[in-house]
Design brief:
alpha+beta; 50s Ribosomal Protein L17, Chain: A; 3-stranded antiparallel beta sheet; 7 helices; 49% helix
């Protein structure tokens, strides 16, 4: 029994859960908002808010505490990001750091706000595959930023939409073909013409 044990397991072990929360927090600080499932958003929300609270203090101890929990990662917006330095193999070597952005840009915006730095908005949509409820987790004041809130949740959704479009086209073609062939009487119509109603009774 898990009485008085708080937190979300999320179907993962401890190390996997820690990595998941860390990755979601880095994505949130990088893009301003992310699209994920409701349990994951509820799990990472307090983790992110505690990091912002530590960053608001701004001292060296808080910076080291955030680095220990978040790791000082390089911010990479995309594969063609010009702000990062790559080696000859294409691997990221250096670039802007997420902890510096947290302390210099994000935390000062909430200097006068005592908590409540994030907002969770349910999208009313479900993920293709397992049907999980989707939501948007965003930093307060960053409602219009973040390329991940564009309605494109996965390649499977694009494939499903493509299949639906193809099926709709095929249905239209089938209806058009049926309308052209509608001049040919069907078997029921031919039987009705051969034996009009009432002839069988007179015989």
């Amino acid at each position: 029994m898990r009485h008085r044990v708080a937190g979300f397991k999320l179907g993962r072990n401890t190390a996997h859960r820690t990595a998941l929360r860390r990755n979601l927090a880095v994505a949130l600080f990088t893009h301003g908002q992310i699209t994920t499932t409701v349990p994951k958003a509820k799990s990472v929300k307090p983790f992110v808010e505690k990091l912002i609270t530590s960053a608001r203090r701004g001292d060296l101890a808080s910076r080291r505490r955030v680095i220990a929990q978040l790791q000082d990662r390089v911010i990479v917006i995309g594969s063609d990001d010009q702000n990062v330095t790559r080696n000859k193999y294409g691997e990221v070597v250096d670039g802007p750091r997420v902890v510096k952005k947290l302390f210099d840009e994000i935390a000062p915006r909430y200097a006068d706000r005592p908590g409540g730095y994030t907002r969770l908005i349910r999208l009313g949509k479900h993920r293709i595959g397992d049907g999980s409820d989707l939501c948007v987790l965003q930093l307060v004041g960053q409602e219009q930023t973040g390329p991940q809130v564009s309605g494109q949740y996965s390649r499977r959704r694009d494939k499903a939409n493509h299949r639906m479009d193809v099926a709709a086209k095929l249905r239209k073609q089938a209806k058009a073909t049926g309308a052209v062939q509608g001049d040919t009487p069907s078997k029921d119509q031919a039987a009705t013409e051969d034996h009009p109603a009432g002839e069988g009774a007179n015989e």
